[in-house]
Every structure is written in structure tokens, then in C-alpha cells.
Write a structure and sequence with these properties.
Chain lengths: ~400, ~400
């Protein structure tokens, strides 16, 4: 028979919605897909030629579990602002950040282990914690991220083995942990000697001002484990991401990764390293920032035009998602059904809430659709929203 | 604090040995590496050009968890001899077969779940079962694979939730489950309605006669889950493998994979599919068979020449490994230490035995070294073996 964890498994509503939205006539704000037309396809193609001519069969052979050394050396340089100077012994290359979560769940979570998360939180993290049968305790969060008063209240009642946060432009809300809260959170974490997983795939996609320093950079390796990825800044299909952490943790995660998938795919690692070596990655990120900012602004101005005034939404300063609150008695899943009839899709927010609240919330992705599609899609959603009172 | 499973984690001696053997002056029979000079590097390079020109950015974008449909369609055709005809709903693409084991461990193993394995068995499987805290029960095995009398004896005492086997050219011993035992095992499995994982990465690497039909093909999907991989027949660095199983199992594994790493790398899947489409894969496998057979024969004739007569070894009919039994009181780890001083390496067999026996066994890989290196390496190992009595 199946393991007990299987009882808690459910299909992600998002993956189900994505099956519908793969039809070309559907305008989708549902997925968390980066804009594919901005992928550096030509550059990766050139990188492939260079990699095969330089490394030959090594690009296709088994390689070490820790990850390709020149890639880890490049990653270390981007973390140079950290309080302690990380070396390549602090980096493990993972098969996407989702695998970082899987490996960390294996390292920290027994059945019933307490994990604090934001409320709402990233669905993939909740799925990973659920596979390992964690006791997830949601901590109230708002547009400045996890609320410090709620965290302190939580700590009075429970001792978490892990705290999981996405501090910059969170999935699903787009919220960003303010600098003041970052400082206060680090104090509390050090005082209680907690282990914090900082999941930071969107940190570079900042639209206004500079990137906030990460908790890992500000708070150090004793308490903070940093997950990051090239999925949102180069391309997700290569599945190249990394964990940065204390060396002892990296050694243990490496052992666990041996028993999990031996290693991250060799070719993808070589391609990312060669891409970083031969291209202006910072300039590429500036293009992503400009494009996504423009799409966010298109979505916001379309929402101003087409959405009823009774709704609230935020103005995320980065990332890929915008968050909408409907009147309290509305159910976003009903809205979605009516939107799908008009070939437009989004993700109802409830699934992101470990405490089952959030029935009246919606996540809108603005990175994947073109400005024209954003305007038209929001118009259709607006039509549904404006008449929704009649359907209740 | 760490999860309880972490207490059982230990570094694989193999990975430690591989760090030493990466020095170019070392002749290594230690790793399980396929012969890199036989990788179809040119063909994969051409496949990369075709993939980028045909699919563009889709080769770098997120894709579905189940895996690339045209690749699954091709895999299904290779399984056409099965008693029930599998469809693409019976296939999940995995990040190497090691991930297949991880996903299956998640699906079936709670702490203390009973898993029967051969004795000795594949180390990566034992690591995966150990991460999920299975109770591994080794079943005595010989050169014809798992012993039927030992399996029946095991079933009288315990009811396993899983039986794990590598029936064809097993890692580490090279043993192949005889057709008679395959038939008898299937009867027993059906009688007890057991779930069997058949791990079959070496099945195609057969040197004499034809490939044995897999248990999955002979016994059907109700009781048999088939793991297979392109790592040994195309290239391991792409990390493209698959699980074939009943649709319900595939659906559950797909959900688990969502929370594990979202999907297998898109580019690797596209490359394997395009390679299979545009090249003569069967002819490539024939070349691998001929080359590995020749290397096995070189190793056998060198052993005849250089090894003392008190040793026993097998003559595997396929795969990548040869198995040596030393006199009962010898410890292969001591032999290894002395071999490393002479820049030649192998893997002591004890680690492969769940019951801790096998101190006097050695695994020799013959696929990775050239015939010249095989002759010279075996000569050096022979020197150590011939004088080992003096060191006891």
C-alpha cells in the first residue's frame, strides 16, 4: 500500500488550470511563466556550440553532485556582499529551486515538524512540506511581508524547526519584506537561533530602486539558507538553481542529493556557466526589469479602467505577480469558471493559504502575456467581475 | 535540528573513491561510468541545432511534469511487447532513474516500511530507501539473480510493501535473473500480489544472445513498475530516464514530482527525442555492446593472467560490472588502500550489502577504461592480490 503521506497529496489547482490555458485562444494570467520571448535563445544556442567544442563528451558525462565548479565560482562572486564571505563549499547546484526545497525538507522535516510560513505562501513549498508531513503554521503577512507581531505571537506558542519565507516579490502576492522588517526579523531569528529558508527567485526582478539585500547577506549563514535560481533570469527549462548555506548544511544536502538524483544535469550547468561568461547578464536583467515593469503598469492601468471599485489590489515593486482582494463573500473559483468561458484565466488565491482562508483572492501573473493581451484579458475579467453581484 | 533520517546518512564510499580517481594517473575500475568516447557528441550537437531551430524558446521554457509527449510516445513503442499495451499515460519522464527511486520511495515508504532487495543491491537504491527510513530486508542472491527459495523464506516471515530488483546485469555483481527464475518470481509476485520495482538501466547492454524480456513485459503493470534510463545508452549528463507503470501510479508519481522538482529539464528531453528521431539508436546500442563485450573479455583474460587462483570471479553476460570474491578472511578495503598507492582503484563490495556482509568482495567496472588501461590496471591489482597473504 501507499505511504501515509499520500493521503495528503492533492493535485495543484494551478497545474490543472494550466492544462486549460495551454489552448492558444486563452489569455492566461494563471501560470508563473517568465516571458519566453525574452529568453536568450540565440545566446544559449551559441553557448551550446562553445560548450561542445570546448568540453566535448564531458558535457554529457556524469559530474559531481555538488555542481560544476566554474559555475559555483561565478555564483559565489554574486554573493560577495554577504557578511561572511562564502566559498564554493557554501554552494550546491540544484535541479531548480523546487529541488532545493525537497532536499531541505529531507534534511529538516520529520512527520509533525513545525514549519512557519507566510500566509499565503508559495504553493510548491507547501507541497514539499506536505510530502514530508510537516506541521505548517501560517504567520499573518501583509504587503510588507511577514508581520513581526504575528511571528512573535507564533514563537510564544510554537518552536519552529524551519521558517520559510519568500521576502522579495513573493509568490503569490508580490509582497516585499520591508528593510525595517528584515532587520527586526534577523534580530528575532538570532535571538531564538532559528533556521530560515529564504527563497529568492524574484529578487533581481525589481522595478523601482535597487534590489533589497537578502536575509542571507544581511543575517549570515548561521541562521539563513538562501535558495536562488536562474529560472526567472535566464531560462527555467534548463533547471539550474542553487542553495547557498553553511558548509555543514551543504555537505549534508549533497549526501541527500546523491540519493535523490545523483546530480543536476551536466549540460544545463555548462550552458548557464558559459552564458554568464560570454554575455552581459546584468544588461539582460535590466531588460527583464523594464519589460516586466511595463507589463505590470499595463495591467494596473487596465484594472483601473475595467475593474469595479469595490476591489482592492496591490502595486508590486517587482516580480511577476499582482494580488487582488474581492469583496469578502465572493469566491474567486466561481469567477474563474466564468472567466474560462471567456477564454481568460487566473489562479484563485485560496490554495496558497495554509489556513484555508483567502477564498476571495486572486493571483494575476503579468510577466507572460503581451501588453495587448493584458489589456484585453483584464477587460474580460472586468466584465465578469462587474456582473458578479448578479450571480451571487 | 535535523530530521531523524539524517542520523542514517553516510557518504557513499564510491563518491569518496571517485574524488581520488579523478586524478588522470589513476586507472579506475571504481566508477559506474559509461565510456565517454562512445557518447554521440556530434549527434547531440546536431540535435541541439535542430531543437533550437524547430522549437526556439520552447526548448528553454517550463514544460509539463509528465514529460515531453513525443519522447513518451517513442518510449511507449519500445515497450510494445508488453502483455498490456502501455500508452503515454503509463510513462513519467524522470531526472535520471535515481529520481524514479526517490519518487517511488515517497509513494510507498513510511518509516519502517519493509522493502526486499537483492543481497548485494544497488547502492543508490539503498540510499534512497534509507532516506525514507525503510526496513530493508536483503534476500540472498547469486549469479542467476535473487534466489527463489530465499524469497519464499522471506515471504514466510515478512510482508514487503516493495520488492526492489535489478534483474539484468545487476549493479554491483553483473548477475542476470535467469528466465526460469523470472517466470517463477512472477508467479510468486502475483500469488502474493506484491509491488516490484524493476530497475533496468543495463538490460540493453547484452553481450551474448538477445535481451531478456523485462519483468514488466512478462508480468504486467499490475505488479511491476519499470525504471529505465538513457544514461547508459545515450548519455548520463542529460539526466533523462523514465518510469513505466500503471496509470494510477504514474498520476500519483506526477503529483509527487510537482513537489519534488516540478519537471525534468526541458532541453535534455528535447535532445533525447530528437536524437532518437534522427539517428540509428539500435545501431548505436550494437556498438556499445561490442565495445563493452571486448572490454569485459580484456578484463577476464587479464585476470586469468594476473590474479591468484584462490580468487573467484564471474563472467557477466552484459552490463558494466564484474564481481570478484576474495578468500573469506580478506578485507577488500585493505586491498583498495594498497591499490590506490599503485594508482589503480575499484570499489570494495561490502557497502552494497544491506546485511553488512561481503567484506571480501570487489566490484570492477570494465566499461570506462580502454583495453590497454584494463590490462595494466588488472596487472597492478594482481600484484597487490598476489602479495596480500604477506600483509595479513
Amino acid at each position: 500500500m501507499y505511504a501515509e503521506r499520500v493521503d495528503g497529496l492533492k493535485s495543484s489547482a494551478i497545474r490543472e488550470i494550466l492544462k486549460i490555458t495551454s489552448r492558444p485562444e486563452v489569455i492566461s494570467f494563471a501560470g508563473g511563466l517568465p516571458a519566453a520571448e525574452l529568453f536568450p535563445v540565440k545566446e544559449i544556442e551559441t553557448a551550446a556550440r562553445n560548450v561542445f567544442s570546448r568540453y566535448g563528451y564531458l558535457a554529457l558525462q556524469y559530474s559531481i553532485t555538488e555542481g560544476f565548479v566554474p559555475l559555483r565560482e561565478k555564483i559565489v562572486k554574486t554573493l560577495a556582499a554577504a557578511t561572511e564571505r562564502p566559498g564554493i563549499g557554501n554552494i550546491l547546484i540544484t535541479q531548480g529551486s523546487q529541488q532545493g526545497l525537497d532536499l531541505l525538507s529531507k534534511l529538516y522535516i520529520d512527520r509533525g515538524t513545525v514549519v512557519f510560513t507566510e500566509n499565503p505562501s508559495y504553493l510548491g513549498a507547501l507541497q514539499s512540506f506536505s510530502i514530508f508531513e510537516a506541521d505548517v503554521v501560517p504567520i499573518a503577512s501583509d504587503q510588507d511581508g511577514m508581520r513581526i507581531d504575528a511571528l512573535l505571537e507564533g514563537l510564544r506558542r510554537r518552536r519552529p524547526s524551519l521558517v520559510y519565507l519568500m521576502p522579495s516579490f513573493q509568490n503569490p502576492t508580490g509582497a516585499c519584506l520591508s528593510m525595517e522588517r528584515r532587520r527586526r526579523l534577523i534580530e528575532i531569528v538570532k535571538e531564538h537561533d532559528l533556521v530560515v529558508i529564504e527563497d529568492d527567485p524574484y529578487g533581481e526582478l525589481v522595478f523601482e530602486g535597487e534590489r533589497s539585500p537578502s536575509l542571507f547577506e544581511l543575517g549570515g549563514m548561521r541562521n539563513f539558507i538562501h535558495l536562488n535560481s536562474f529560472s526567472k533570469t535566464i531560462a527555467p527549462g534548463l533547471r539550474v538553481a542553487y542553495v547557498a548555506a553553511d558548509e555543514e548544511i551543504i555537505r549534508k544536502l549533497t549526501l541527500i542529493k546523491q540519493g535523490t538524483d545523483l546530480q543536476t544535469n551536466t549540460l544545463g550547468q555548462f550552458l548557464v556557466e558559459e552564458y554568464l561568461e560570454s554575455n552581459n547578464y546584468r544588461e539582460h536583467i535590466r531588460i527583464l526589469r523594464r519589460t516586466y515593469k511595463h507589463r505590470r503598469d499595463c495591467m494596473l492601468s487596465s484594472m483601473e479602467k475595467h475593474f469595479p471599485e469595490s476591489l482592492k489590489w496591490n502595486r508590486p515593486a517587482g516580480g511577476m505577480f499582482l494580488w487582488v482582494e474581492l469583496p469578502g463573500e465572493w469566491d474567486a473559483r466561481e469567477i474563474l469558471q466564468r472567466c474560462l468561458e471567456r477564454n481568460v484565466a487566473f489562479v484563485p488565491g485560496q490554495e496558497f493559504f495554509p489556513d484555508g482562508s483567502g477564498k476571495n483572492t486572486m493571483r494575476l501573473n503579468f510577466s507572460n502575456a503581451s501588453p495587448d493581451h493584458i489589456e484585453e484579458g483584464i477587460r474580460r475579467v472586468g466584465e465578469v467581475l462587474k456582473t458578479h453581484g448578479n450571480y451571487l
